[in-house]
Amino acid sequence: MTSELDIFVGNTTLIDEDVYRLWLDGYSVGDAVALRVRSGILEQTGATAAVLQSDTMDHYRTFHMLERLLHAPPKLLHQLIYQIPPSRQALLIERYYAFDEAFVREVLGKKLSKGTKKDLDDISTKTGITLKSCRRQFDNFKRVFKVVEEMRGSLVDNIQQHFLLSDRLARDYAAIVFFANNRFETGKKKLQYLSFGDFAFCAELMIQNWTLGAVDSQVDDMDMDLDKEFLQDLKELKVLVADKDLLDLHKSLVCTALRGKLGVFSEMEANFKNLSRGLVNVATKLTHNKDVRDLFVDLVEKFVEPCRSDHWPLSDVRLFLNQYSASVHSLDGFRNLPKAVRPHLAAPPPLPQRVSPCGHQRGCHKT
Amino acid sequence: MPGKLKVKIVAGRHLPVMDRASDLTDAFVEVKFGNTTFKTDVYPKSLNPQWNSEWFKFEVDDEDLQDEPLQITVLDHDTYSANDAIGKVYIDIDPLLYSEAATVISGWFPIYDTIHGIRGEINVVVKVDLFNDLNRFRQSSCGVKFFCTTSIPKCYRAVIIHGFVEELVVNEDPEYQWIDRIRTPRASNEARQRLISLMSGELQRKIGLKVLEMRGNAVVGYLQCFDLEGESGLVVRAIGTACTLDKLSSPAAFLPACNSPSKEMKESPLVHPPSHGCRSTHNSPIHTATGSRLTQNFSVSVPTLIYTGMGSGSAGKEGGPFKALLRQQTQSALEQRGGSPHRFCRRREFPFFTLTAFPPGFLVHVGGVVSARSVKLLDRIHNPDEPETRDAWWAEIRQEIKSHAKALGCHAVVGYSESTSICEEVCILSASGTAAVLNPRFLQDGTVEGCLEQRLEENLPAGCGFCHIPYDELNMPFPAHLTYCYNCRKQKVPDVLFTTIDLPTDATVIGKGCLIQARLCRLKKKAQAEANATAISNLLPFMEYEVHTQLMNKLKLKGMNALFGLRIQITVGENMLMGLASATGVYLAALPTPGGIQIAGKTPNDGSYEQHISHMQKKINDTIAKNKELYEINPPEISEEIIGSPIPEPRQRSRLLRSQSESSDEVTELDLSHGKKDAFVLEIDDTDAMEDVHSLLTDVPPPSGFYSCNTEIMPGINNWTSEIQMFTSVRVIRLSSLNLTNQALNKNFNDLCENLLKSLYFKLRSMIPCCLCHVNFTVSLPEDELIQVTVTAVAITFDKNQALQTTKAHVEKSLQRASTDNEELLQFPLELCSDSLPSHPFPPAKEHLESASSNSGIPAAQRATSVDYSSFADRCSSWIELIKLKAQTIRRGSIKTTVTVEKTSPMGEGNFRNRSAAPCANSTVGVVKMTPLSFIPGAKITKYLGIINMFFIRETTSLREEGGVSGFLHAFIAEVFAMVRAHVAALGGNAVVSYIMKQCVFMENPNKNQAQCLINVSGDAVVFARESELEVVSTQQPAANCQPACTGGEVTT
């Protein structure tokens, strides 16, 4: 006796959260059944393995049919075929677009192309996430990217509107899209200690302050591309290190303001020139695409690592950076800058939230 | 009464990409009604076209309005080649033809293609202007309302229940026409869908005409079925109960009183079934049956084998007496027909009612289940306009049913239904119902007022009257074990009752009910034509007998004594017959406690064998005890002395033959009088019987927190919360062809059903505590080794805590009431009626029930009365089982009352609120509930919008790509649900009640990567409002009404 056909269709589509998770994680029906058996569900419910198998198959089939709609979530809301309560719809979408930290760190900043997709095998082996799940996550990134690129308006809003994601998830996707678009290098060994959250934090600040959208909210891709003009203007910062008087003046301003407030004051004072040069060099090189990609590597090399070697506490780094950027405004040459450039200067370079591997969180250092 | 049909095509959305180059579609729409076609402009390059067309107007006869569906085709315009069809929408405009239902159809309809399924949606607005024209000779029956619901619809009251209406129309099946060889599968499917739509429209119109002839205005319990006879054609047939309904005035509709039938009854000289008053002698509970009934020596429905063209033939080896009988019947039928050649009169010769629940007082006694089957050979229907052969077949069967009912001392049949099973050219026609005695008062013509009948009401003991036998105790039509009623101790009752109706709302039940199924397979040799038909008709009596025995055993194992909603389905396949009987078992307080089951061995000397036997016996006794606990069956103590030992005295033992393989010689020696004993004796003399016992014991009860029944409501549960989940589950298994024996088959089939149930319990575990109601199993044998089981049911949650309280209250009250006298009891419901209803926390029915249950005390000695079985043949093919139906009820039905008392679950409430409060927030599609029940828990149905009757065909030539057979059917059923919901929403409704999937024919050819499926569903589109909502808005009732309409409106925006 073999079961040829076995289906269950409810007027309200039944969604089993546990099975959905297993499906999203890319387990085969067989594996999913085994995992469910291990969870002790048979004992709780008195069901047999055959029942579990049939149930799992059924849910998998449903999810498979729903997947097409999940690719364009508004369709899920308007379709008539599956009657699903709104709360369940939201859950389906949110979970479908959720991603694994380990996975996103592997592809963050990479081009979302076929080439990268081929590497998913390796990523799967490395992270222990099933290839199926890797594909889903990768395709999600790519799909969101495709939909929102060349679109007007706020990136987060666009994502939210077209994919009906929660605010938090939409922000994460905005970061992923932003990183993929600008191809920031995040995979170097030096950057491994940084989490996706750290990068997402930076991305948000950069979107707010460095993109076209920061000046003009009516252009395509406004939140995705860096403002070329702004990057060009950053070149002007070179005087901060090139002009020795200005450098000294800047240093004295910072030191005066921070004296007694910094635990690592003497180290800072000794290193000011190096640190300032590092930061300014990173900023002035950003007109080259390659250097833009290496932004985070450079920041870590030129600034984070020196600080770390001197054992700066997080709070001191924050104080220093705030003062470093604030003092610039009182310098002679900068007072007369065109107004349009000012807001950009107000924003200090983005720095990963964490400067040391032990993971001190650095709060918002925007002034 | 011609009319003007107006159609407007508004917009489309989610259309498929038809032009690969541009990834877009140039869509336009054809609107066709009858022979007139209109077209919209092409809306170029869009997947969401906005046509916003003018109003297309069709001026048509109302006859066409009733028959024809509105056909909307969406196409992709192609400059160079033929336009490609995207899909179609068929809209039945019948609901627009009577005033009280929908006034406009407006909404998003899924665009359906028989090859690709749903492909986008289209927004359509349809209106009808009818011109009044009272043409006496009209062919249309606009205005007659149709209901699938098998009880009086909730916001109506029955003025008169006229009786049975039936009609059938036949046609050639387009699938089998020569043209089918040259046309595409799509064209063929569409031709079929359209034809069936036309035929059901025509059928409905014809039935409507009959209703008008009877001066009714509605059909309740309308059941329409398709017989796909293959080569020989397509039959669409329908039965129903003609009524004159009155809409309850609006404010009343919102009060629980809406269905207080007691009130109705007083003000209306109700109902007159067409049985010519021949049974009017039954105005006393004690029936003096005429001797003639016994001389008929019979209460059997023989599967008569009748070859087409030959008239009636023999019924196999035990044919002798039956043949005679049959002749007699046919003769009488002919006489009657001759005497009254008028169609109208002929129809009235069948006092049948398709209703399964009745206004209180309608039923006096119930005699038992009557059924008839007949095996026919199909041949081509030569003249579609003269469907006489099929008509004659059914007339024959109905005649038989009628005579069975007479034999039981009953003049009417209630809970009546008809079905067919077709395999190649063999067709089994089946009809079954419950023989009943109706209140004579209802038998009068509306004009004649009888004061005599008033007395009857008072004479009838409330709560148990329906259990009392309608036939003469001394001349019983079949052997039964009679005792005095445990409730009133005045009348005789049988030991078990089988019925096809729902449990009367006022019946006194102890504990809860449960789903009981008998399952059976019999192998049959492959044969052709007559030989095949003979083989089948020879097997049928054995199957019926076996099914009956299984039901009996299982009922006893559950410790219960009555079955409601019994439905026996016999399915014929190439090489086997399947029998599946489903019913809901209950413990009726008025009937005696069922005895146990006794196992007897054949070789008593063998010690180990004995031990084995006693071990089995113990297991059975344990199971019975466990079941009693599980279903809370604690009959009052007085019955203790009566129950006695489950093992009867040796001399009383009767043996029950299990196996069908015995030769007829043995048959004559058998003593089959199990009916007269306390206990059933199972003799396990062969492995066959052994397995039967095993299978008895392996039926696992549902997991805790689950209950199941196949009736509308679960006896013993009355505190439903509002969460419901209707579902359809389909399973097909392939039997290994090697070792097909009857036992292996039985086991496979049994496992199939049991596993299916287990899966359902598992899937719905999040709803616990809940009850699966209206569990409807359908078996079909699509191919040689395939068995297909389709289940549709609804899971309803209930409040466990409240249930406990109720039981407590129950016990307390029954204690209080223990001393109450019968006479007092009779008065008290009347008083209740005058009370303001909402002030009663519990339905009076319950209180009454309690008092009644405490009232059974009967000397054990009196139970001994019994009558022997006359013959094996009698027993085995007879489907006449005893029951009673409680007679007069002066109270209102407890369903409705219960509903009002309930609190709605916060969740459902929330949903509703959400929708009304912030329609745009969660955007989109209004929720449409579907349920096979006639009500929605926690809600009031405020309006019936019309019948939904839809037929779909889906075919694929890429089965693997669509996820194999499971993927294909899963998607199709989901699409069918979607289309039903869309139509209901477009009518302005928010639920379908009495939903039924009448047909799900699935055929596959995996080698060719093809599959095809036909589904036929029906139900009543309604508007309901949550009770919590109603309380708020009941004063401004229009608000409540517009609520769902708004939801519908949302969809269009």
Model description:
The complex is a heterodimer of chains A (367) and B (1053). Chain A is mainly α. The longest helix of chain A has 22 residues, at 49-70. Chain A has helices spanning 17-24, 29-38, 41-45, 49-70, 73-78, 86-97, 101-107, 114-118, 120-127, 131-148, 155-163, 167-182, 196-210, 212-215, 228-234, 239-242, 244-258, 265-284, 289-293, 295-309, 314-328, 332-335, 342-346, and one strand at residues 2-10. The radius of gyration of chain A is 25 Å and the shape is elongated. In chain A, α11 packs across α12 (167-182) and α12 (167-182) crosses α13. In chain B, 30% of the residues lie in helices and 29% in strands. Chain B is built from 25 helices and 32 strands. In chain B, the strands form 9 sheets. Chain B has a 4-stranded antiparallel β-sheet with strand order 4-1-8-7. In chain B, strands 3-2-5-6 form a 4-stranded antiparallel β-sheet, with no helix packed on it. A 4-stranded mixed β-sheet of chain B has the order 9-11-12-10, covered by helices on one side. In chain B, a hairpin with a 2-residue loop joins β15 (412-423) and β16. In chain B, α6 packs across α8, α17 packs across α19 and α18 (822-834) runs antiparallel to α19. Chain B is globular. The relative contact order of chain B is 0.11. Mean pLDDT of chain B is 70; it is low at 251-347, 443-459, 639-679, 803-923 and 1033-1053. β1 (2-10) of chain A pairs antiparallel with β26 (720-734) of chain B.
